[in-house]
Amino acid sequence: MATDYSDLKKNLPEWVKMSRMFASKGRVADYIPHLAYAPADALGITLLPLNGDKLTAGDCDTSFTLQSISKVFTLILALMDNGEARVFEKVGMEPTGDDFNSMLKLELVEPGKPFNPLINAGAIVISSLIHGQSIAEKSARILAFIRELAGDTSLTWNEEVRRSEAQTANRNRSMAYFLKDNRILDDEVENTLEVYFRHCAIEVHCSHVARMALILANDGVDPQIGRSIIPRRYVQIAKSFMVTCGMYNASGEFAIQVGIPAKSGVSGGILALVPGKLGIGVVGPSLNDKGNSIAGVHLLRLLSERYDWSIF
Ligand code: DON
């Protein structure tokens, strides 16, 4: 039986308005200088039901770059290219409890492999595992995959954001050199980082992210064409990481308060999903101290409580 979304449709604009007030309590990321231009008080959401019409409210025309949301999809592509055994030789499966750009644990455990593929160190290693002979070929494969999932062949990376990150990524650069020294990273550091910066800078709207999320919510099958795009096993792996590490060191709190697989980015985007039901894309550039959209998390918490979305 189709779910009735009429209550959600009626109340969504009001809940966005209420949640938007929290934006003033956070801050827009500026460690990548170009991200600082994002509208601090924006909040928008798109929900794509598996059976039903698209619902949107708030500032859904605000574009944003995927940033860490892209890491879920490079992980999936790396799994499709290499298989589980090879990927998990290079990255672990455990949350860190540290910041997303922390390098603390890289030196604490042998052989210095990143704890998981969603922290920066792990995602940089994952970028190197994407098949392709050159930076251009690897980037083109990632972009084609994201375009297919987002349902938009015109998506590309924002060149200003890419350049801004490339010019200031001292911390990621140092981690990549460290990983190279430990023989976790096999490719050249600068080539790997360029692939990573490009996928982080892919520019989207909430509706793209909602569609990407819907395919994960539907076990990898594109509901429009009824074709499997991602093997179910890799969707399972991606969702597990989203639950345990998707909101970084706020993942435990998010699991308790919202309880759905989600992945945030420092641009203020959040991809979330209710398995078997909904794909969700949120934008709210003002971040809390853990690097997650402050108003976006508030909105998802409100919706999850109201509609009993928690998977736990
Ligand atoms: O490497 C970085 O710092 C960014 N390109 C991505 C970080 C990010 O989105 C973390 N999200 N919360």
Characterise the protein shown here.
The protein has helices at 6-20, 70-82, 84-90, 120-129, 135-150, 159-168, 170-181, 189-200, 206-217, 232-245, 251-257, 294-307; strands spanning 27-28, 44-49, 55-58, 64-65, 203-204, 221-222, 227-228, 262-264, 269-274, 278-283, 286-287. The radius of gyration is 18 Å and the shape is globular. The strands form 4 sheets. The chain has a 5-stranded antiparallel beta sheet. A two-stranded antiparallel ribbon has the order 1-11. A two-stranded antiparallel sheet has the order 4-5. The model has no long low-confidence stretch (mean pLDDT 96). The protein has 2 domains: 5-66 and 204-307, DD-peptidase/beta-lactamase superfamily (Beta-lactamase); 68-200, Probable Glutaminase Ybgj, Chain: A, domain 2 (Orthogonal Bundle). With 312 residues, it is α+β, with helices and mostly antiparallel strands. The chain starts with 5 loop residues before the first helix and ends in a 5-residue tail after the last helix. The protein is 46% helix and 12% strand. α2 (70-82) runs antiparallel to α10 (232-245) and α7 crosses α8. The protein has 12 helices and 11 strands. The structure holds 6-diazenyl-5-OXO-L-norleucine (DON). 6-diazenyl-5-OXO-L-norleucine (DON) is lined by residues 67-68, 100-101, 120, 165, 172, 200, 248, 264-266, 291. The site of 6-diazenyl-5-OXO-L-norleucine has 13 residues, from loops.
